[in-house]
Structures are given as structure tokens and as C-alpha cells.
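Re: that chain you flagged

S.,

Sorry for the slow reply, it's been a week of failed gels. I finally had a moment to sit down with the sequence you sent. For the record, here it is as I used it:
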Amino acid sequence: MATGILATNEPVKSYSVKSIGNKEINVNGMGDDPKWKTAIELTDFIYPWEKESPPFTSFKALHSKDWLYCLYKVKDDHINVFVKTNEKSEVVFSDRVEIFFRKDEKMSPYYGLELDPNGRVYDYEAEYHRKFNPEWTWPAGQLIVKASKEADGYTVEVAISKKSLKELQLLKGNILQAGVYRGDCVEITEDNSKIKWISWVRPDSPTPNFHIPSSFGILKLTD
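Prediction finished late last night. Pasting the C-alpha cells below so you have them in one place:
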């Protein structure tokens, strides 16, 4: 873990994404590829708007020549997934992990990937502040998401092509500006749910909101 600086001159958290060179990870939703053992494990997640300590959340990332890989492992004794018509928007009522990417601190645009324990993806393009285009989807063939459930939690494994990150002007050199989050769904009802929000970075907001510049950190791709 290190501290970096964005264009705003505000100190931000930085995570080092190690390289696996020309090798690739078998994305199966289990996170059991041996290469994951070489990744730095990020576990310093917080409840920004709750008084108690959050349940365990782990994030890892690696990169190859062509792909960025992300792995979430979370503890959750009561996994809640809302399924009615199985539309991607149902992810927002469910337990999920999230990663946001932005071009710059203006967040015009930024991109959200919200990923639930069933492996469903709620992907969207947005403009600051909270102007969503949910009809947008990640470029075809450039995103792989697999998930699995365990008795005490779930795992989400992701592969994002560098080609798509570059075309969206998100990967600049070896730097990605990203927010890493989790929505812990503690109660689910018809078309509604109660979420406790978990974040790597503490956003500068008195009420729950990840869609602001201060919720982002840096993913630094290293050799």
C-alpha cells in the first residue's frame, strides 16, 4: 500500500497490481488459480457511514499483457440476491461488489461495474453527478465475470481487457483511477433492499455516496 497524488493534489490510496506477464488466469469464479497467491491482498475496507466494523472483504488484482484481473472474496452469512425477471438492474437490490473507473477527477464520464453473487453484471456509463446511462454495456467480449457462493460468503472473479480500458481512456500509462466497494445487503424485500456500504476509501460525504471524486483511489500496474 502506498500514497499517491491525483490532479486535485489530494492524497489518495494506491494499490499495486502485479504483473503475470504473458500468463493468463483461469477465470472460473472460484479464485483458485495459483497465480492469485502472488497478488497483494487488500483488506482495509471500512463502513464509512456505520459505527460498527464491517464484515471481511478482500480484493486482489493482477494484470497480464492483455487483461486486468480482479478477485473479490467476502464473508457473508446471509447472501441476499434479488431475482424477479433477472434483468441486470436487479443487481442494485442485491449483495454485490463494485468497481468504478473514471477518466479523470471530473468524472465525465465514469463507468460502473456492480457484480452480484450470481455473476450478474450491472454495467453503466455515467456523468457526474449520478447521471446514469444504464443502457450502456461494457464492450462485447472485453469483460468476463464469474461468481460462486460458499456457506459463509461468496467470490467474484473478473477479467477486463486492457483494450477496452484504453479505448474508454481509462488506462493511462500504468494508472487506473478506480473505486473499490461492496454493498452488504442486510435485508431484501419486493423491489427494495437495505444496504450497508463498504469502501476501500472513505468518501467525503456525510451520507452514502460513492459517485463522487473522493471515493476513488489508484490502481498502479507494476512490472
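What I noticed first: The chain has one helix and 13 strands.

Talk soon,
D.
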